[in-house]
């Protein structure tokens, strides 16, 4: 059954891999699944045809036969649930991989996104220079806790899983601000994720779609 | 196997059901599972014994034999995955129920929590009165999109599922600010969730733990 995802026609990050379709592309590459991409403009994202697929008017979406999904976490879960490569086979270990997916999306990403919102939606407001340190301190606290838990392990719980895929993807959003590099063990963890061949292919595909250029290597 | 969760010794909301243990209690009640509760003080939450269970020093956690989980979404997923009552049996419908869980936690809760943070962590800052309308506008936009998708349906996708449990729980956090009531169809949706006997039992249990009083009825 053909899998079709949606992605930005022009990603706000210019193809640096921070748009959420990269997460889904990565999961599909880890699972070895071919897929088609339908590119959507900002205008089309707010139109009824797209809103039927995604009530919040965003990307990515996922279509496979009669099944239509939005929400990156749910799409990655679905891929991991039905194909080998992203969840451990042991039931308890699988529950913990799901745990790290939710942790990435509900306990780590929101504070990182708060900084993105402060910069891009409130960047011109008079309070922003004074407020940014508070926002950054909340990120610092959370990343510190995560670094403590990771310790010197390679991945969050045994082998690489969909939980790592999601956590690495979320942490990538803390790199442009320089905050990821304040935590060398997390920066190294993210680099391990980026070094995976499946990530490399996903990144190259979304970069090429955004710039017409394929990275070397 | 005995299930043990953790909850606040004294919940910041005084037992109004907004602490995250209520979500887990609700799921356990829907599944008909007995459980024990270990109450944790704010101080104990930051100590090594609890941090081993929950790296971010929060509640709830979930222990069942050798399995230890944190992150409400993951705990509710685990309960729904292994017991009847919270996921539909059809595979595609189950994928959509998971989708609504992630949507609640990654696309709806963060903007609502932004308001909680603005009020309680930045309430005394000079910019807050001028900034609150922006934060509220972001909530309004998201809840409007959700109301459009819900339409006049009873639940988000067919019968009640773990997706509704999570969405209702998240929307409850928008009630104290009055923002939930700006969307009558969402307020009615939340009320349907609250009317479920399993929710009633969960709410009564956490209220009694926080106040020593059991609600009538």
TrEMBL record, chains A, B:
- One Pfam family, short name: GST_N
Q: Which UniProt keywords apply?
A: Transferase
Which Gene3D superfamilies does the annotation name? Answer: 1.20.1050.10, Glutaredoxin
Keyword Endoplasmic reticulum appears in the UniProt entry: no
Q: Which Gene Ontology molecular function entries are recorded, alphabetically?
A: transferase activity
Question: InterPro entries from the entry?
Answer: Glutathione-S-Trfase_C-like, Glutathione-S-Trfase_C_sf, Glutathione_S-Trfase, Glutathione_S-Trfase_N, Thioredoxin-like_sf
Q: Which domain of life is it from?
A: Bacteria
Q: Domain (GST C-terminal): give its ranges.
A: 90-213
Task: Provide the GST N-terminal domain boundaries.
Answer: 8-87
Task: Name it.
Answer: Glutathione S-transferase
Q: What is the protein's species of origin?
A: Dyella thiooxydans
């Amino acid at each position: 059954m053909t899998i079709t995802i949606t992605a930005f026609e022009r990603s706000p990050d210019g193809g640096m891999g921070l748009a959420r379709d990269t997460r889904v592309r990565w999961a599909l590459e880890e699972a070895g699944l071919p897929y088609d991409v339908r590119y959507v403009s900002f205008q089309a994202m707010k139109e009824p045809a797209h809103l039927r697929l995604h009530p919040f008017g965003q990307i990515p979406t996922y279509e496979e036969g009669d099944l239509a999904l939005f929400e990156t976490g749910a799409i990655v879960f679905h891929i991991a649930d039905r194909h080998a490569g992203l969840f451990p086979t042991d039931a308890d270990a699988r529950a913990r991989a799901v745990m790290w997916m939710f942790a990435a999306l509900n306990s780590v990403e929101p504070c990182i996104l708060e900084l993105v919102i402060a910069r891009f939606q409130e960047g011109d407001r008079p309070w922003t220079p004074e407020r940014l340190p508070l926002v950054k301190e909340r990120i610092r606290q959370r990343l510190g806790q995560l670094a403590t838990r990771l310790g010197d392990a390679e991945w969050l719980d045994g082998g690489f899983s969909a939980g790592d895929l999601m956590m690495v993807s979320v942490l990538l959003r803390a790199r442009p601000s320089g905050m990821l590099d304040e935590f060398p063990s997390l920066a190294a963890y993210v680099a391990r994720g980026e070094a995976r061949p499946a990530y490399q292919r996903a990144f190259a595909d979304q970069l090429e779609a955004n710039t017409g250029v394929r990275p070397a290597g």
